[in-house]
Automatic annotation (TrEMBL):
<keyword id="KW-0472">Membrane</keyword>
<feature type="transmembrane region" description="Helical">
    <location>
        <begin position="12"/>
        <end position="33"/>
    </location>
</feature>
<keyword id="KW-0653">Protein transport</keyword>
<dbReference type="Pfam" id="PF02472">
    <property type="entry name" value="ExbD"/>
</dbReference>
<protein>
    <submittedName>
        <fullName>Biopolymer transport protein ExbD/TolR</fullName>
    </submittedName>
</protein>
<keyword id="KW-1133">Transmembrane helix</keyword>
<keyword id="KW-1003">Cell membrane</keyword>
<dbReference type="InterPro" id="IPR003400">
    <property type="entry name" value="ExbD"/>
</dbReference>
<keyword id="KW-0813">Transport</keyword>
<dbReference type="GO" id="GO:0015031">
    <property type="term" value="P:protein transport"/>
</dbReference>
<comment type="similarity">
    <text>Belongs to the ExbD/TolR family.</text>
</comment>
<dbReference type="GO" id="GO:0005886">
    <property type="term" value="C:plasma membrane"/>
</dbReference>
<keyword id="KW-0812">Transmembrane</keyword>
<dbReference type="GO" id="GO:0022857">
    <property type="term" value="F:transmembrane transporter activity"/>
</dbReference>
């Protein structure tokens, strides 16, 4: 009688190493690798600043009203034509949090139709410190 030799199964460590290596490469490519800041540079802290709209922005209230520098604006066309030539290319818009997305998209489309090359939406960015 022959003795049946039980074969030992090899663990797939090579396959596991390949998968881990591919994941490492993926995250290196997908992530942003940036140069470190100079040691002499200290970043500005904005935690204590009062939150208000920048002065040269079109503010859109939740009911669709438009204001610019605290004054009411009748329409997108009157706002755009009242701006100086050199300030018409980029328009900054501060929407109210309760404003409908459809209203905001329509406003941006109207500003682009008037001739603005870029419409920038200014939002609050929540950062945990």
């Amino acid at each position: 009688m022959r003795k049946y030799r039980q074969r030992t199964r090899l663990e797939p460590t090579i396959a596991l190493i390949n998968v881990v290596f591919l994941m490492l490469i993926f995250f290196m490519v997908a992530g942003t690798l940036s140069q470190p800041l100079d040691k002499d540079v200290t970043l500005v802290r904005t935690a204590d600043l009062e939150g208000r709209a920048p002065p040269d922005t079109l503010v859109v209230h939740s009911d669709g009203r438009l204001t610019y520098r605290g004054e009411s604006v009748g329409s997108v066309q009157s706002f755009y034509t009242a701006r100086p030539e050199n300030e018409r290319e980029v328009i900054r818009v501060v929407p109210d949090a309760e404003l409908s997305a459809l209203t905001l998209v329509n406003l941006a489309r109207d500003l682009r139709a008037e001739g603005a090359s870029r419409v920038m939406i200014v939002t609050q960015r929540g950062l945990d410190e």
